[in-house]
Amino acid sequence: MPIINRIADFHEDMTAWRRDLHTHPELGFDLPRTSALVADKLREFGVDEVVTGIAKTGVVGVIRGRHSETGRAIGLRADMDALPILEETGLPYASATPGLMHACGHDGHTTMLLGAARYLAETRNFDGTVYVIFQPAEEGGGGGQVMVQEGLFERFPMQQVYGMHNWPNIPAGVFTFRPGPIMAATGRITITVTGRGAHGAKPNEGIDPILVASHIVTALQSIVARGMEPTEAGVVTIGHISAGNAENVIPERAIMKGTARWFSPEVGDLLDAGVHRIANGVAAAFGATVEVEFKRAYPATINDAEATELSHKAAATVAGEARVVPMERPTMGAEDFSYMLNAKQGSYILLGGGRGPDDAGVHHPRYDFNDDVLPVGASYWATLTEQLLRA
């Protein structure tokens, strides 16, 4: 079965919702307009219950099938938040809030789940209950963790939970899946190097924290290159260094910020210990001091094998088996859907949105979600529901 005809009928409506969300991005947990729009749409569609205020601005819609008393239930999750990026698309529906942008496609994720909710509330062609979960603060805020901590699975008892993300690196309408690890765990690195300030013409009178920071950046690469089992995966990236205000002054300190990524907990421990050891050792060698923070954030996103096969089947029903492609290697990106998968059986799948080789990737100021795949994603959610909760 291809895209569901009824969902295709309101493709234009979904496009309008998505572009409205794109024009009005909101950040983190502070999503008053977005969550209100989601709740209003769910009520308009006639879902049985709309629960707001979970993790501040999270929304859960409850849709009961023909025989909800069976106790069978699944959850479908979409994220709603934007990013602190200045949009450069020049589109007529571009962000109206300078410095905020839907650069990761969460506007599309929200819209696809709304489309599925509309269809499921109309048809009720399933036995049991489906919970449509709209989550805030995926982009670094850990909204998924907060929803779990606030009793998501106790208040809405479900056997499984599923997630989906658009992926502009693969062709539009193609799904990719992977049992086991699919996205990495992440840690935030902050290193503050303190030296001794001096005139730039008299470096011998100071301890240059920029020089120390430069050596630390170089040395950190040895953790992965020489400290890890070669068949394991790990990343240490320093993406920000700030120090000084004048070209002829050696400043007192330099601040470095970066990210670490891994899959196995043992590798996470190795990266954590390695960052501390190298930063402290290099700083000491130059006579500087250092403060190191390695803050672990999202755990790895690990798909349950059985649930992944079920999501594969639903995707193949919508797109055709040839357009559901196994993912050879996991990505080093991170996802706080991992907290939900740590608490419940489930799976996370990727839906291609690529138009061509010149497409901007996610987190890019020229990225824009491909509206052509809105009915594909909504049909996947609806099909997954009807297959797992077969009437």
Characterize the main sheet: 8 strands, mixed
The structural domain count equals 2
Reading the helices and strands in chain order gives HHHEEEHEHHEEEEEHEEEHEEHEHEH
So what's the CATH class of the largest domain?
Answer: Alpha Beta
Low-pLDDT stretches are: none
- Counted by DSSP, the helix tally is 11
The fold-level CATH name of the largest domain is Aminopeptidase
Mean of all residue-level pLDDT scores: 96
Q: What share of residues is helical? A: 25-40%
Relative strand content: 25-35%
End-to-end C-alpha gap: 17 Å
Helix-strand category: alpha/beta
* Spatial sequence of strands, sheet with the most strands: 1-2-4-3-5-16-6-15
Q: Radius of gyration over alpha carbons?
A: 23 Å
Explain what you see.
The protein is an alpha/beta fold and 391 residues long. It has two domains: 5-181 and 301-388, Aminopeptidase; 185-296, Alpha-Beta Plaits. The protein has eleven helices and 16 strands. Helix 3 (32-45) runs parallel beside helix 4. The chain is elongated. It starts with a helix and ends with a helix. The mean pLDDT is 96.
Keywords summarizing the entry:
alpha/beta; Alpha-Beta Plaits; single chain; 8-stranded mixed sheet; 11 helices; 16 strands; 391 residues; 4-stranded antiparallel sheet; Aminopeptidase
